[in-house]
Design a protein that fits this description.
Distance between the termini: 43 Å
Number of helices: 5
Oligomer: single chain
CATH class: Alpha Beta
Number of domains: 1
CATH topology: Rossmann fold
Number of strands: 9
Helix content: 10-25%
CATH superfamily: Class I glutamine amidotransferase (GATase) domain
Structural class: alpha/beta
Radius of gyration: 16 Å
Strand order of the largest sheet: 2-1-3-4-9-8-7-5-6
């Protein structure tokens, strides 16, 4: 069994220094995760790369890292140089043993940072679709039903990094999430979504154009 796949319990949520949340577009914020962090006494700070805020050189000032979704692709680093900087920070945080969570684009950035291929999928997955737990005995999926409805908004997908443990799948995409080691978790679907966020996205011009282009 590879070190990445060892069945450790999830790392404890670190308190003290705040967590860093990398945000790629204003309306993709942490949603329901705010309640989780605040309930654990954890402060967090958004870093808005879409506003030109620089990705830190190291994760030394932070206790954890959350990487949110966005409309760009991991393979567009020439157009969005911060994507490469984020992957570097993800690798540094992983090596430092910090908790790392990626959602949607964030999950794809984690996959890319760990050496996996990220690429356009065969079909956009937008809306509420069933998600199946593929590792029911894993500590990260403990207590979840074997199948539940998840909110999706993506067209890209990723291969599973070597040594990663697959956690979720959907009917359209085999890789909907994975764990890597004890401290890294990547989730393709939007576990953070709220009703208010769905309304906010549907009112966004870019989201409306993307929806209109779906066959």
């Amino acid at each position: 069994m590879s070190p990445a796949a060892e069945p450790h319990a999830p790392i404890a949520l670190a308190q003290g220094r705040p967590w860093l949340v990398l945000r790629h577009i204003e309306h993709e914020h942490i949603g329901t995760l705010a309640r989780v962090l605040e309930g654990a006494g954890i402060a967090y700070r958004y870093l808005d790369v879409f506003r030109g805020e620089a990705v830190p050189e190291t994760p030394a000032d932070w206790s954890g890292l959350i990487v949110m979704g966005g409309p760009m692709g991991v393979y567009e680093a020439d157009r969005y140089p911060f994507l490469g900087e984020e992957q570097r920070l993800i690798r540094q945080a992983k090596e430092a043993g910090l908790p790392v969570l990626g959602i949607c684009l964030g999950s794809q950035l984690i996959a890319g940072a760990l050496g996996a291929r990220v690429y356009p999928g065969h079909k956009k997955e937008i809306g509420w679709y069933p998600v199946e737990v593929t590792a029911p005995q894993d500590a990260f999926t403990a207590g979840l039903p074997s199948r539940f409805m998840g909110f999706h908004w993506h067209g890209d997908t990723f291969d599973l990094p070597a040594g990663a443990v697959p956690l979720f799948r959907s009917d359209l995409y085999e890789n909907q999430g994975f764990r890597y080691g004890r401290n890294v978790c990547a989730i393709q679907f939007h576990l953070e979504i709220t009703a208010a966020m769905v309304a906010e996205w549907l009112a966004d011009g870019g989201c409306q154009r993307e929806l209109a282009a779906v066959p």
